């Protein structure tokens, strides 16, 4: 079967056509992304209203291009999958309403996809990953530890209690006048650090799998501001390295706890925009090898928001036989187990 996947939860309009054969055998026929990086760069972060308008401008042409690249007509599709939650509500509404209209016009079943499940499904695109496994999902808006029992049953077992991991990276990068998106710039700059600044861990102490990236972000901001007030020049590379070490080290700490809490699970998957961070990828590789855990990471091009991951997650909704109706609405903060 062929599924059209539509993603518009934040600042990238993404559309893909995915061909699905058997369980978890996917061929990506097209995968188009309209990035808004240049639009939001002047503001140092995503402006929700501007993002929504940009989605409106891009989505029709992007769907047409995705179908053309896949060399198919709408009548060749078997279903439409769209990100319905969580995300920026205005941005989500653009994708959801377009998908509803498209599905209605061409008499196709419509499937609502959880954005977090979509990121997890990015690992199915090019990996032979099978549940059960633990997934660490981190981006600019989300940070979650998820126990994946099967392709549709997901249990949140931990996550951030305040700021997302990616948002923390972006904020510190912005304060240091680094280019947007800050996460990628911080990743690169950290390699130039020689004497990393010491910051507290973001791993919350105790019998939990939670994080607090607000604390580490505040510590970094206080260090930067106090250094400037003393008339001293900040060493951006050392700050980037110290912040990266603390953030990534916090993830490893909680992953270690997670696999001790769930000893029957021996697979780890990372996903989301922060999964492209080279320091995180290096450290989870070390961790997995040390403990004999099977590690799965999406290709870099599938770490960010994309339509292929939404189509893949939509396939499992299709397998469950639960299409959405035309009353489907977007939701900003929902997670569906």
Structure commentary:
The protein is of the alpha/beta class and 337 residues long. The protein folds into 2 domains: 2-120 and 302-320, 2-Layer Sandwich (Nucleotidyltransferase, domain 5), CATH 3.30.420.40; 130-297, ATPase, nucleotide binding domain (Nucleotidyltransferase, domain 5, 2-Layer Sandwich), CATH 3.30.420.40. It is 44% helix and 19% strand. The chain is built from 10 helices and 10 strands. It has helices spanning 37-41, 48-70, 89-105, 115-126, 165-175, 182-189, 213-229, 236-261, 278-291, 307-320; strands at residues 2-7, 12-21, 25-35, 79-85, 110-114, 133-138, 143-148, 154-159, 267-271, 294-296. The chain is globular, with a radius of gyration of 20 Å.
Summarize the structure.
This protein is α/β, with parallel strands linked by helices.
Output the keywords.
about 325 residues; alpha/beta; Nucleotidyltransferase, domain 5; 2 domains; five-stranded mixed sheet
Q: From the 3D coordinates, which CATH architecture of the largest domain would you assign?
A: 2-Layer Sandwich
Structural class, judged by helices and strands? alpha/beta
CATH topology of the largest domain: Nucleotidyltransferase, domain 5
- Categorize the overall geometry: globular
Query: Which strand order does the major sheet show?
Result: 3-2-1-4-5
Helix and strand run: EEEHHEHEHEEEHHHHEHEH
Q: What count of helical segments does DSSP give?
A: 10
Radius of gyration: 20 Å
- Straight-line distance between termini: 25 Å
What is the name of the CATH superfamily of the largest domain? Answer: ATPase, nucleotide binding domain
